[in-house]
Every structure is written in C-alpha cells, then in structure tokens.
Design goal:
Distance between the termini of chain B: 41 Å
Low-confidence stretches of chain B: none
Helix content of chain B: under 10%
Shape of chain B: globular
Shape of chain A: globular
Mean pLDDT of chain B: 94
Mean pLDDT of chain A: 92
Radius of gyration of chain A: 14 Å
Oligomer: heterodimer
Strand content of chain B: over 45%
Distance between the termini of chain A: 37 Å
Number of helices of chain A: 0
Structural class of chain A: mainly beta
Largest sheet of chain B: 6 strands, mixed
Number of strands of chain B: 12
Structural class of chain B: mainly beta
Strand content of chain A: over 45%
Chain lengths: 116, 112
C-alpha cells in the first residue's frame, strides 16, 4: 500500500479564517513533507518532518504552521492567509532522511485551497 | 546546487505515437532520479525511478535509463494513449539529500 490521504479535497476560506489541512499515511514512513503547487508549476517544498521533528522550513511565512502529532499524521494549520496563497497543497511521505539511495516520496492527492 | 532541466511543452502526439521527454540533470555524487506524473486535478504519482547509473526504471510501458555519462534520464514510451495525457515531472534527490529537485514539468497531450 503506497497511499497517502489528504483531507479536505477542496477548501475555501476567507483571509480571517483559521483552518487545517490533514495528511495521513500508514506505510511506516518517518519523513513527511508539505509542498505548495501553483498552476502549471512544479511543487515547491515548504516543510519536512523527520521522526516527528521539524527538519526543514523553507522560509515559509508564519501564517502556515505545521504539526506532526505522530508518525502517521501531518497537519498544516492556516491562519490569516492571503489570496496569493491559493494553490494545491500536497503532502508526501518517505523513508527517513539520512538514508542513502532511493528515498521515494509518495504524494497524496492534494487539497485545493482558495483564499478569498 | 542540484538542478533538473526538462524539455518544454506542450508535447502533442497522436495516439500510438512514440514518446520521448528529455530530462538532464546537474548534481554531485550519485543522485536518485524519478519521473512523476500528474493527471488533471490530481496529485503526483510516482511513475518510475532509478537509483544508480545504467539502471532502467519502467512502469506502464514507460521507460527511462539513468545515464551518468550524459547526465540524462529521458522518458520514453513506444505507443502513447489518450489516457497518458498529463504533466510529467523529472526529479532528482541528492545522494544523501532530503529534498526533491523538480524540473519545470512537460505537458503531454495525446489526440485520438
């Protein structure tokens, strides 16, 4: 099973709202990722968790707040977003970092976010 | 730093035509190489991968060979179908890396 699930599939929010995106995997992966993808562009890395600890933050604005409550779950808390934050948000997971060779990342279907 | 260059699209082909999407990379050491496919309205799916030189990845009729001498990982399929219409991303991960570096993506359109 190489499935990563994400909820919700679609989300519309105002600039003053607080919402959360959820990602789940049951492949025993100990690295999990959040990406942002704009239309017709490749995904851009936002955050990486390794063994439930934040390992990489690609200088993402603080209105995005990640959380990894356990090895299977990854959340992205959203607050005071801007219209330019509208995008497809993808979650991925892989075997742990610092492991040589072929750490394949498996992606979820994404949450399509629209900020009004 | 590491980088990936893909041929620009869109690539438009008739059904049953031969497909090649070029991908070249720049990286130190021995990166792992991947092709991901994104169908309209969906997330990325791993299509195939290769982790060392001369490895050939294959899946669903698609193939790509890791060529270290030419730093390339071109995607090929002998006979495309309309259902292959999608965006294809070439990507690499450094030898001890923890980040995927993506190419810009190539849109493939297959006409019946």
């Amino acid at each position: 099973d190489t499935e990563v699930t994400q909820t919700p599939k679609h989300l519309v929010m105002g600039m003053t709202n607080k919402k959360s995106l959820k990602c789940e995997q049951h492949m025993g992966h100990r690295a999990m990722y959040w990406y942002k993808q704009k239309a017709k562009k490749p995904p851009e890395l936002m955050f990486v968790y390794s063994y439930e600890k934040l390992s990489i933050n690609e200088s993402v604005p603080s209105r995005f707040s990640p959380e990894c409550p356990n090895s299977s779950l990854l959340n992205l808390h959203l607050h005071a977003l801007q219209p330019e934050d509208s995008a497809l948000y993808l979650c991925a997971s892989s075997h742990p970092l610092r492991q040589r060779g072929g750490k394949t990342q498996y992606f979820g279907p994404g949450t399509r976010l629209l900020v009004l | 730093g590491n980088s990936v260059t893909q041929m620009e699209g869109p690539v438009t082909l008739s059904e049953e035509a031969f497909l090649t999407i070029n991908c070249t990379y720049t990286a130190t050491g021995y990166p792992s190489l991947f092709w991901y496919v994104q169908y309209p309205g969906e997330g990325l799916q791993l299509l195939l991968k290769a982790t060392k030189a001369d490895d050939k990845g294959s899946n669903k009729g698609f193939e790509a060979t890791y060529r270290k001498e030419t730093t390339s990982f071109h995607l090929e399929k002998g006979s495309v179908q309309v259902s292959d219409s999608a965006v294809y991303f070439c990507a690499l991960e450094g030898e001890y890396g923890n980040k995927l570096v993506f190419g810009a993506g190539t849109i493939l359109r297959v006409k019946s």
